[in-house]
Amino acid sequence: MPDTTGLDIETMRAAAGEATGLLRLLAHEDRMLLLCQLSQAELCVGELEERLGIHQPSLSQQLGVLRREGLVETRREGKHIYYRIGDPRALQVLETLYGLFCKQNGDTR
Amino acid sequence: MPDTTGLDIETMRAAAGEATGLLRLLAHEDRMLLLCQLSQAELCVGELEERLGIHQPSLSQQLGVLRREGLVETRREGKHIYYRIGDPRALQVLETLYGLFCKQNGDTR
DNA sequence: CAGACAATATATATTTTTATATAATATTTT
DNA sequence: AAAATATTATATAAAAATATATATTGTCTG
């Protein structure tokens, strides 16, 4: 574990604020699933809807949250809008969580 | 990035539920700061209060949340109650966040 | 080009959850 | 019993989540 005790409280609070800001965005089941999908491939809304079984307006709303906060980026292709991860920090947290909650039980995928 | 696309949606949802459950607990500035302190040392409430400048009842309330959810464990010594981290998963997420939000700017501590 | 259709986004209202502050109470040691 | 420390209860405020309805944008057909 890294030693954070030397940091003054103001600095720590600032970092904690940033960190919790990111965590709040990730701490939502649908958004988490969206990001997991997007960590594997760029996908359009319809594909996400099909894979996750989330109703379109909910989907679009959560994608909107992620977009406004910079966690995902988009690209339009005809009537489809493709989403991809746009924040490497989110990706790294996702990776840690994968190790903790998905990889257990000898699944060495 | 690990490949999660092969997991069926039910399994993914279950894992996402667990993961977001943990994240919700971490996505709170005071709780985050508490856990950061406790990642370095076992501390009693008074010490936490002094280090973080959080009012005692707020502190106790958030410690209560963390305790009920198993993220921290306690030990009594006289009139003091010492807290320590009780969930290795929390520790690992904290470590990732430290790398992303605290270690930047050439701080090689 | 108008009109229809398909994909995605936004707005709004409602409910639920979470946070915050204060006050009151409990526990343990001396 | 008193002092120090910690916990719980309660009320209020603020923030998120959810569902439903509606709007926008682009494409294709006749």
Automatic annotation (TrEMBL), chains A, B:
| Superkingdom per UniProt | Bacteria
User: Which Pfam families does the annotation name?
Assistant: HTH_5
Task: Please name the PROSITE patterns in this protein's record.
Answer: HTH_ARSR_2
Q: Which UniProt keywords apply?
A: DNA-binding, Transcription, Transcription regulation
Q: Does the keyword tRNA processing apply?
A: no
Q: Where is the HTH arsR-type domain?
A: 11-105
Q: Which residues cross the membrane?
A: none
Q: Which InterPro entries match?
A: ArsR-like_HTH (IPR011991), HTH_ArsR_DNA-bd_dom (IPR001845), Metal_resp_trans_reg (IPR051011), WH-like_DNA-bd_sf (IPR036388), WH_DNA-bd_sf (IPR036390)
Q: Name one GO molecular function term.
A: DNA-binding transcription factor activity
Q: What is this protein called?
A: Transcriptional regulator
Q: Which organism is it from?
A: Alkalilimnicola ehrlichii
